[in-house]
Write a structure and sequence with these properties.
- The structure is a single chain.
- With about 450 residues, the protein is α/β, with parallel strands linked by helices.
- The protein folds into 2 domains: about 30-55 and about 345-445, Aspartate Aminotransferase, domain 1, CATH 3.90.1150; about 70-345, Type I PLP-dependent aspartate aminotransferase-like (Major domain) (Aspartate Aminotransferase, domain 2, 3-Layer(aba) Sandwich), CATH 3.40.640.10.
- It contains 16 helices and 15 strands.
- The strands form 3 sheets. It has a 7-stranded mixed sheet with strand order 4-10-9-8-7-5-6, with helices on both faces. Strands 1-2-3-13 form a 4-stranded mixed sheet. A 4-stranded antiparallel sheet has the order 11-12-15-14, covered by helices on one side.
- β2 (about 40-45) and β3 form a beta hairpin.
- α5 (about 90-105) runs parallel beside α13.
- The protein is globular, with a radius of gyration of 22 Å.
- It starts with 7 loop residues before the first helix and ends with a helix.
- The relative contact order is 0.15.
- Bound molecules: pyridoxal-5'-phosphate.
- Pyridoxal-5'-phosphate binds next to α6.
- Pyridoxal-5'-phosphate binds near residues 57, 122 and 258.
Length: about 450
C-alpha cells in the first residue's frame, strides 16, 4: 500500500468508513483503489489489471464501459434530470420501464414499484405484505419465513430477514416473528446417504411442520433467493422450489422471489424464477436491472397482492410509502437501455453458455486438496474451500482460508469474493470463452 501522507490510500484511511470492513484492520491494510473499468476488467490506480470475477457485486452485467448507458443517462439528464412519482406524477422513462418489467415477468404481474437499493425493495415488499394482511382483516398474518444463509439486505427489516450473523451482531434488530429454515445446501446439510430429492422433501416437511406449529393464519410470506448468493452461492436441489411452493400454496402464504442477484440473466435464464419454475407473488430486483451504473431497484406485485393494497389505500386515503428517487427518470432510462442491451446481445444465452464453460473449468479443480465443493448454475458459481475434505472443515477460524485465497487471487489479477470459505465467481454476463479460460488459468496460477 502507498502510505505516503496525502496519497489517495492515506486519504481513504483518514476519511472513509467502508461498508463490510474490519474498520480497525483497514487503518493498516488500506484500500484497493480501482481507477477505471473496461469490459470484464478493472484497473487499480497503479495500472494493474484484474478480472472482475464478481461483476462488482453481482451487478455489472454489461461490463464496465458500456457507452450506450452513458449516452442514455446523458440524454435523460439533459431532458429531465429529476422528477418524482408521488401522488399522480409520472414521466416517460418510469412508465416505459414499468411496462417493460411487467412484460418480462415470468408469471403474470400487475404493477411495478421503484426503490433505490435491494434492501429498500425488500423493506417495501415486507411493508406491502403487512399492509395487505391488514387490508384483508388478517391482522395476525405477519410472520415471515426465510432460510439460513439468506441475504436480503441491511436496512433494519432487510437485516432481520437476512440470516448471516455479521448482519445481526451488535445491531439490536427489532423486527419480530422471522422464522428460519434450513438452507437448501445438499453438500453441507444433507444427512448421510440422503439423496438431493430426499433432502428437498425433508426441507419441505420442515417448512410445513413450522407453518403448522406457528399456525398458518399467522404466516404471511416466504422470502427466498432462487440461488442464495451472499450466503455462499447455495444452488438448491432441482425439485426444492416445487416442493416449497406446494406447501406455501396449501397454506395461502405469499412467495417473494428475491431476484436481486439472480435477475436479468445471472442463472442462465432471464430470472432465477424461470430456472427453478418459481411462481412468485412478489419479485424483488436490483443490481443487473441497471448493471448498477446507477442505483436501481424495483418490485413487481401480482394482482392478488395489488388488489387489497389498492382497497386499503383508498380506505386510508393514500399508500403512505415511497422514496424521493422512486422511479428516478435517469435511473429508469439507464435501466431500459441496459435491458435492451441484455436482450439484443442475448447476454442471458451467453451467461448460460459461459457459465457452463466456467463450471467445467472450476470442476477441473475439484481434485485440489483445498477444494471441497464446486457448485453453480449459469454465471453464478463458487468453490468451497476446506482443509479436510472428509469433515468438510476449513481452518479453525471460519473465513480465514477464504481470506488467504482471496488475497492470493487478487495478486494473480482476479477479484473474487470470499463468503466465509466459499469463493464466488460470478463475472459480467458479457464474458467471452477466451476470458473464461483466462480466468480459470489465473485461478490455477
Ligand atoms: N437481496 C439480495 C439477494 C442481495 O444479494 C442483496 C445485496 O447483495 C440485497 C438484497 C440488498 O441489496 P442492496 O445491497 O442493494 O441493498
Amino acid at each position: 500500500m502507498n502510505d505516503k501522507p496525502n496519497s489517495i490510500e492515506a486519504r481513504d484511511i483518514a476519511y472513509h468508513l467502508h461498508p463490510y470492513t474490519n474498520a480497525k484492520k483497514h487503518l493498516e491494510a488500506g484500500p484497493l483503489v480501482i481507477d477505471r473499468g473496461e469490459g470484464i476488467y478493472v484497473y487499480d490506480n497503479n495500472g494493474k489489471q484484474y478480472i472482475e470475477a464478481m461483476a462488482g457485486l453481482w451487478s455489472v452485467g454489461v461490463g464496465f464501459n458500456e457507452k450506450r448507458l452513458v449516452k442514455a443517462a446523458t440524454q435523460q439528464m439533459e431532458k429531465l434530470p429529476y422528477y418524482h412519482t408521488f401522488t399522480h406524477k409520472s414521466h416517460g422513462p418510469v412508465i416505459e420501464l414499468s411496462e417493460k418489467l411487467i412484460g418480462m415477468a415470468p408469471v403474470p404481474m400487475s404493477k411495478a414499484f421503484f426503490t433505490n437499493s435491494g434492501s429498500e425493495a425488500i423493506d417495501t415488499a415486507l411493508k406491502l405484505i403487512w399492509y395487505r394482511s391488514n387490508a384483508l382483516g388478517k391482522h395476525e398474518k405477519k410472520k415471515i419465513i426465510v432460510r439460513n444463509r439468506a441475504y436480503h439486505g441491511v436496512t433494519i427489516a432487510g437485516a432481520c430477514l437476512t440470516s448471516l450473523p455479521a448482519n445481526h451482531k451488535s445491531f439490536d434488530l427489532i423486527v419480530p416473528n422471522v422464522l428460519r429454515m434450513t438452507a437448501p445446501h445438499h453438500w453441507r446439510e444433507a444427512m448421510p446417504g440422503e439423496s438431493e430429492e430426499e433432502f428437498a422433501t425433508r426441507l419441505a416437511k420442515e417448512l410445513e411442520d413450522t407453518i403448522l406449529a406457528e399456525g398458518p393464519e399467522t404466516v404471511a410470506a416466504f422470502f427466498g433467493e432462487p440461488v442464495q448468493g451472499a450466503g455462499g452461492v447455495v444452488v438448491p436441489p432441482a425439485t426444492y422450489w416445487q416442493k416449497v411452493q406446494e406447501v406455501l400454496r396449501k397454506y395461502d402464504i405469499l412467495l417473494v422471489a428475491d431476484e436481486v442477484i439472480c435477475g436479468f440473466g445471472r442463472t442462465g435464464t432471464m430470472f432465477g424464477s424461470i430456472t427453478y419454475g418459481i411462481e412468485p407473488d412478489i419479485m424483488v430486483m436490483s443490481k443487473q436491472l441497471s448493471s448498477s451504473y446507477l442505483p436501481a431497484s424495483a418490485l413487481m406485485i401480482n394482482e392478488k397482492v395489488f388488489q387489497p393494497i389498492m382497497e386499503e389505500s383508498d380506505r386510508i386515503g393514500t399508500l403512505g410509502h415511497g422514496y424521493t428517487a422512486s422511479g428516478h427518470p435517469v435511473v429508469a432510462a439507464v435501466a431500459l437501455e441496459n435491458l435492451k442491451i441484455i436482450e439484443e446481445r442475448d447476454l442471458v444465452g451467453n451467461a448460460a453458455a459461459m457459465g457452463k464453460r466456467l463450471l467445467d473449468g472450476l470442476n477441473a479443480l475439484a481434485d485440489h486438496p483445498l477444494v471441497g465443493e464446486v457448485r453453480g448454475v449459469g454465471l453464478i458459481a463458487a468453490v468451497e474451500l476446506v482443509t479436510d475434505k472428509a469433515s468438510k472443515k476449513a481452518l479453525e477460524t471460519p473465513g480465514a482460508l477464504g481470506a488467504l485465497v482471496n488475497a492470493h487471487l487478487q495478486e494473480a489479477g482476479v477479484i473474487s469474493r470470499a463468503m466465509t470459505d466459499a469463493m464466488a465467481f460470478c463475472p459480467p454476463l458479457i464474458i467471452t470463452a477466451a476470458e473464461v479460460d483466462d480466468l480459470v488459468a489465473r485461478l490455477k496460477s
